[in-house]
Specification:
324 residues; alpha/beta; globular; N-(1-d-carboxylethyl)-l-norvaline Dehydrogenase, domain 2; 16% strand; 5-stranded parallel beta sheet; 47% helix; Rossmann fold; 2 domains
């Protein structure tokens, strides 16, 4: 299969490099110094005690999506609105779109739009719902320099059709990823997997950004662990209101997070790098759904507002620094 990766940074680069190494025809869509490095030196992945380099095609032209059978979207959730019209315009009629993004995805509800995820419904109008294959990404990776991805942990990418069927296309994508070295199970209830990951992302990510703390530092503190537990209980209540059965208990989710002591969440990494934060897809969407279903979530609302204030303060500080 021909594969395009839109937003070939850390996770996109990891996917693209492993697929390319197993013989798939891969097109990486990137920009700036990263694109220049991909073209001149190839894509290097560091993992464990070794590394490897591949040389897939790299471009900044979204029209390249039209040549792909499978299109992975590996951008931050808040970046999808800007690129969705171009992706949709270039997309081949039978291509599968696999959004490897965090949080509640725009396709979650076939009959409604979440404003926190898809403002104005731009993504939903651009990318046909019938071409989407759901995906939940568990690996942790960092773009340490242009053209170089460091893979720190995890190799599981859960896949699932939005309607729960085990289609031929989702089977083929699963086999392709498995051959490339990933665990890629096909889930008949992919929304349960989305909330499984969201249980951590909607809670640990904003708390880590607010405290500047690693997971170990947060969860070794009784107050930090207590706050995270309350937040997870509220997320679980919203999930339950939607008929979601979480595959893991809150106790086990906390212990799993505590075991990776020095890990910095993606939101904290973005904050330190001066990048926009994935607040709405991870937390805003949960709050929007809680409001729709009258689920009380007082702690989540406070953390959401504090994280918004954090972003505003960081932006103000950057602007003040620019004037000096």
């Amino acid at each position: 299969m021909k594969v395009a990766v839109v937003g070939a940074g850390a996770i996109g680069g990891l996917l693209g490099a492993h697929l390319s190494r197993t013989g798939q025809e891969v097109i990486l869509i990137a920009r700036g110094p990263h694109l220049a490095a991909l073209r001149s030196r190839g894509l290097t992945v560091r993992e464990g005690d070794g590394e490897f380099t591949t040389h897939p095609e790299a471009t900044d032209q979204m029209s390249a999506v039209g040549r792909a059978d499978v299109v992975f979207l590996t951008l931050k959730a808040h970046s999808l609105t800007a690129v969705a019209p171009a992706v949709g315009a270039a997309l081949a009629p039978r291509a599968a779109v696999v959004p490897a993004v965090n949080g509640i995805p725009w396709w979650y509800f076939p009959d409604r739009t979440l404003e926190t995820v898809d403002p104005g419904g731009v993504i939903g109008r651009s990318i046909p719902h019938g071409q989407v294959v759901g995906c939940v990404v568990w690996p942790a990776a960092t773009l340490v320099e242009p053209g170089v991805v460091e893979h720190s942990e995890g190799n599981r990418l859960a896949l699932g059709e939005p309607d729960g069927s085990k289609s031929e296309r989702v089977r083929q994508i699963s086999e392709m990823l498995t051959t490339a070295g990933f665990k890629a199970p096909v889930q008949t209830r992919i929304r349960n997997e989305i909330w499984h990951k969201l249980l951590g992302n909607a809670t640990l990510n904003p708390v880590s950004a607010l405290t500047r703390g690693s997971l170990g530092r947060i969860l070794e503190s009784p107050s930090g662990r207590g706050l995270v537990r309350r937040l997870m209980e509220e997320v679980a209540a919203v999930a339950a209101s939607l008929g979601i059965e979480l595959p893991i208990s809150i106790d086990k989710r906390i212990e799993a997070a505590a075991s990776v002591r020095e890990h910095k969440t993606s939101m904290l990494q973005d904050l330190e790098a001066g990048k926009p934060l994935e607040i709405d897809a991870l937390l805003g969407a949960v709050i929007e759904l809680a409001g729709d279903r009258s689920v009380p979530i007082p702690s989540l609302r406070v953390v959401y507002e504090l994280t918004k204030l954090l972003v505003s303060a960081a932006q103000h500080g950057q602007a003040s620094g620019d004037r000096r």
